[in-house]
Amino acid sequence: MTIKRREFLLFLGASAGTIALSSCEQKSPTGKITKSPTTSIYTNNINFQPVKGPMPLFTNNQEFSTDKIQPISNTSSNPQIETYSNYEIVDDLILPESFTYDIIGSWGDKIGDSRFGYNNDYLSYLETGENQGLLTINFEYISGLPWIATYQKVMGKSLPFFEVIKALKFAGEKVIDFQELTDENPLKKQIREIAKEAMIDMGIGVISLRREPDGKWVRTNSEFDRRITGISGLEDGRYLNSTGPAVAVFNKTEKGKGYEDNLGDKIIGSFANCAGGTTPWGTVFSAEENFQSYVEESVYPDGTSYQPSNNPLFIGEEGVVGLGSVFGLAGNKYGWMVEVDPANPDDYGIKHTWLGRYRHEAVGIRAEAGKPLAFYSGCDRRSGHLYKFVSKDIVKEPTDKANSQLLSDGMLYGAKFNPDGTGSWVPLKADTPVNPDLPDVHVNGMINLPKRPDGGSFKATTPKDIEDFKQKYQTLADLYEGNAQEKQGAILIDAHLAANAVGITCTARPEDTQVAQDGTLFIAFTSGYPSSSDGSPDKRIFKGPDGEAYEYGWIMRLTEDNNQPDAMKFTWQMFATGGEPTAGGLGFSNPDNIEFDAKGNLWIVTDISTSKHNREVPQNRIGKDGKPLDQANLCSLFGNNSIWYIPTSGPNAGEAYLFGIAPMESETCGPFFTPDQKTLFVAIQHPGEYHGIRQNMASETRQLAMKTTDGREFIQNRKVPIGSNWPSKKVNDSPKPSVVAIRRLDSTAIT
After folding, report:
1. What is the number of H-type helices and E-type strands within the chain?
2. Residues contacting residue 382 through CB under 8 Å, at least 6 positions apart
3. Is the confidence at residue 662, as pLDDT, over 80?
């Protein structure tokens, strides 16, 4: 009998708590340096030896002279084919020789009166003294398979997964409307128990650290250690606060069109916390990204929420979603930027609504004395926009914590990109003219627009759809309801659709925004492929080397007019392009978080979807249907997710060097340097997400049609572990999301 993965998940939910898993230590215990396969010579101006990934690179497999790169000769015997015909993926964080890493914390570890959550993402280190500080950590989401499979072993207690999954299966349903269950139904208590634990595993954490004389980092468990969870305030009174125009919607005295939680401007919890940013005045911003997985994203024209039951509970392989319906959460209170002061143990977060509600991914902060404050952030969806908030008042002193008050008044703008490398900022306010881009400028010929008089959206697919929309609605004021403040709040609550309506450019999943030392903005665009539901990027702007839709992503550099933070015009250019070197890429795929070191060099971590890691690629790259594989199906060529280094000056400027390779089925997130540049903190998210626990060190060899840097195809035999046991690396041990501190063995600066 063949058991499908989904059926296995149901079985796993029943048995994960009762299977006794054996454990024996590997030869290389945690804490020992993992040596990586490397090139035979250091590259010019690079002070580490790049690791050897599965793909031939110009920067890894060429002879280097003192002044320039000399390409491999085009001979019948290509050394790249000999070197890369066999490759083994390792279930560990692979770093260059002379580097090591410390495990700072893992899922389930104690933090204050709570625990280290799941799928750690953005990291921010605030130095509080010599060799000590506070690390703020985002916990983004739940990976269904490993979370369910390992919960009992990691937490030392069980959850009623089997009972709930059995009830779902018996009812023939995939979802349950929690609100319809009676209090007498035992299923209601079981669902709430699971949902509560899942919500605790999301949000924000603060932990205190100290660096020992040998360079190793250890936790100190101080009074500052605390958690902000997905349900903070529900039982403990630790509500989050809010500022800006959306507060007028939250505090409506007259009942609006939609659901209300009757909490006014108080907010229960924060979840889906992905990337973020750190201010010069020492606070940390956490981005609520894929909140639509837990509460309803759509709102009514007055900014009020749909009923929680519109997004009911689901427990399965894709995760534990629809959690907000269990607790009656109002969807319009999620999808914001949350500010936390890690040095204030009584601070549990403020949501600044002038920054807009959308699928936030990171924030770039520009604070200069005598100028308005500028915050840049992207909406991580296929068709998401790049936004900029500009404060009404100016910054007096960049390190003054009073700067947080500047976020209470200003304007939110969206970027309008022009194909000629110029652009402008369009305000999201009531009198901005409605002027959507035509559907045919987008990769999939579709754009979502606000649906009126109802809430939500509709798909515009023809020029006539756009013309009719513009005839009916002249400005954003015609699309939203309420008094002046409430209308502005509703626009910000519905920022993505409002931005579509006024012609702000649909982009290619803008995941990170970082302001460089010279004031220019760098943006990581992860993928230019379309989505059938969300939409797609403008194909005039986001196109690959061949002029077509491009999966592998880009890093863009944006320069404000006269280098002013409040400029209304800018220029842009692509700084780095992902993809295979033979096709014009730099060797990475799907850039996610980015970070600058003190020397101004760019660091990139990648986010290739877990399901695409290391899949077989047949000869000639032809699929079973006889058609060439598209780029989405070729992401497996790049192997595991990884860490990259791009110098921004010197003879190697613009080249990409492979610094690290992540454990199996995981993602590298949130790179952050200590001020002395001796430590790079990185979050390792969702190891074992696709296959769960690696059983008995299982692996298999797969064949992939690779290409040399000069375009020759060859077959690589790639040995791939099945699942993960990281970070312990012990046989059959549970994979756990963890935060690591990367450092040199000799305690010198990383770069």
Report:
1. 10, 38
2. 508, 509, 527, 529, 530, 531, 534, 535, 536, 537
3. yes
Split at pLDDT 50, 70, 90, the class of 244 is very high
Q: Specify the 3-state DSSP secondary structure of 229.
A: strand
**510, pLDDT greater than 50:** yes
Cα dihedral: 321, 326, 327, 328 (round 10): 100
Residue written as token pair 């379309």: 530
CA distances to 551, 552, 636, 662, 664 from 608, rounded to whole Å, are 10, 9, 8, 11, 12
450 CB-side CA count, 13 A: 35
Amino acid at 291: F
Q: Are strands 591-596 and 738-744 parallel, antiparallel or unpaired?
A: unpaired
For the segment 745-750, the average pLDDT, to the nearest whole number, is 96
Q: What is the mean pLDDT of residues 119-143?
A: 97
3 state SS for 241-290: EEECCHHHHHCCCCCCCCECCCCCCCECCCCCEEEEEECCCCCEEEEECC
Question: How far, in whole angstroms, is CA 606 from its chain's centroid?
Answer: 10
The C-alpha angle with vertex 592 and arms to 319 and 224, in degrees rounded to 5, equals 75
Q: Which of 76-80, 335-339, 460-464 has the lowest mean pLDDT?
A: 76-80
CB 26 within 8 A of CB 730: yes
pLDDT given for residue 26 in this prediction: 30
Q: What is the mean pLDDT of residues 147-156?
A: 96
Please say whether the beta carbons of 302 and 455 come within 8 A: no
Residue matched to tokens 């939680």: 261
**Portion of the chain with pLDDT greater than 70, in percent:** 91
pLDDT of 72 above 50: no
Name the strand (E) or helix (H) holding 327. Answer: helix 324-327
DSSP for residue 508: B
Residue 301 near residue 481 (C-beta atoms within 8 A)? yes
User: How wide is the angle at C-alpha 225 spanned by C-alphas 220 and 228, nearest 5°?
Assistant: 155
Which band of pLDDT confidence, cut at 50, 70 and 90, is reported for residue 66?
Answer: very low
Q: Supply the angle between the helices 5-15 and 144-155 in degrees, to the nearest 10.
A: 20
In sequence order, the β-bridge partners of residue 390 are 374, 411
Q: In terms of Cα–Cα distance, which of 704, 681, 687 is closest to 605?
A: 681
CA distance 533 to 549: 17
Contacts of 605 (CB under 8 A, 6+ apart): 591, 592, 593, 594, 641, 642, 643, 644, 667, 668, 669, 670, 671, 682
pLDDT at residue 25 is higher than 50: no
What DSSP designation does 731 have?
Answer: T
Instruction: Give, for 734, the enclosing helix (H) or strand (E).
Output: none
Which residues lie across from 138 on neighbouring strands?
204
User: Could you give phi then psi for residue 402, rounded to 5 degrees?
Assistant: -65, -15
pLDDT value at 653 more than 60: yes
Helix (H, G, I), strand (E, B) or coil at 522: strand
Q: How far apart are alpha carbons 8 and 11 in whole angstroms?
A: 5
User: pLDDT grade, residue 171 (50/70/90)?
Assistant: low
The torsion angles phi and psi of 207, rounded to 5 degrees, stand at: -130, 150
Q: In this structure, are residues 8 and 16 in contact, taking their beta carbons and an 8 Å threshold?
A: no
Closest Cα to residue 489, out of 306, 333, 257, 269?
333
Which residues are within 8 A (CB) of 223 and not within 5 positions of it... i.e. 6 or more apart? Answer: 345
**Rounded distance between C-alpha atoms, residue 684 and residue 101, angstroms:** 12
Which residues are within 8 A (CB) of 424 and not within 5 positions of it... i.e. 6 or more apart?
415, 416, 418, 568, 569, 570
From 134, 141, 192, select the one nearest 163 (Cα to Cα). Answer: 192
Q: What is the mean pLDDT of residues 181-198?
A: 93
**For residue range 572-620, what is the model confidence (pLDDT) as tens digits?**
999 999 999 999 999 999 999 999 999 999 999 999 999 999 999 999 9
CB 116 within 8 A of CB 105: yes
